[in-house]
Design brief:
222 residues; 11 strands; Immunoglobulin-like; 20% helix; three-stranded antiparallel sheet; alpha+beta; rod-shaped; six-stranded mixed sheet; 31% strand
């Protein structure tokens, strides 16, 4: 009986020892293994969020310079210079050396452009012919109509410059002159009383008063 009591007490002691050992043993908590790619992704999201917040807090940049639009100014083209339809220019220069008044330089007969055109085909007296002081003579010129218009009796020939040796200042045509036809015109002249060389200018004029041909007469007074 006494022996059973010892055995019981021994089992009780052993049971108490196991209980104490079990209570004193530390509990080991196993930490879960973290996923490295997930950590990197979370870090990147954190950085992006921080940058976004900082950008939102920054004030908008204020433009310090206003960009003006480029304006192109059109340059007006210069107006074309109108070209004259008729040019009154001497065709050449002729020197009259005969007679007693010495040499005189004067332009030759000239014509203008247009429907009224003339060609001087004859003249009497020729330039440089000599006359006595106060002598009367007839001057004549023969013209051919080389234009496209018909000369009428409304056309004139008149003195235009230099000493007027004729008895009249203006003469009218005695007949019409069609294109291709010719006419001889006349003027009554009187030689001056003073010795010398005289150059007088004449011109053909149409019904509108437009000059279309100029011609000349040169005489010497001895």
């Amino acid at each position: 009986m006494k022996r059973m009591h010892k055995t019981t007490r021994m089992f009780a002691i052993l049971a108490l020892v196991f209980i104490l050992v079990g209570c004193s043993t530390p509990t080991v908590v196993t930490q879960p293994t973290q996923d490295i790619p997930s950590i990197r992704t979370e870090s990147a999201k954190t950085v992006i969020a921080k940058i976004t917040i900082e950008a939102a807090l920054q004030p908008a940049a204020t433009a310090t310079e206003t960009q003006l639009p480029v304006v192109f100014t059109a340059t007006a083209e210069p107006s074309p210079t109108p070209q004259p339809t008729a040019t009154f220019v001497p065709t050449s220069t002729q020197v009259v050396s005969g007679g007693g008044g010495g040499g005189v330089v004067y332009p030759t007969a000239t014509r203008r452009a247009g429907p009224d055109l003339a060609s001087l085909t004859g003249q009497d007296p020729t330039d440089g012919t000599s006359y006595s002081a106060g002598e009367e003579f007839d001057a004549s010129w023969t013209f051919k109509n080389i234009g496209t218009s018909t000369w009428t009796t409304g056309y004139e020939y008149r003195h235009s410059g230099g000493p007027n040796l004729a008895k009249a200042h203006i003469y009218t045509l005695k007949t019409t002159v069609a294109p291709g036809e010719s006419i001889t015109i006349y003027a009554d002249m009187v030689a001056p009383t003073n010795v010398g060389r005289y150059v007088e200018n004449w011109e053909l004029v149409n019904e509108n008063g437009d000059v279309f041909f100029t011609f000349f007469l040169v005489i010497d007074v001895r």
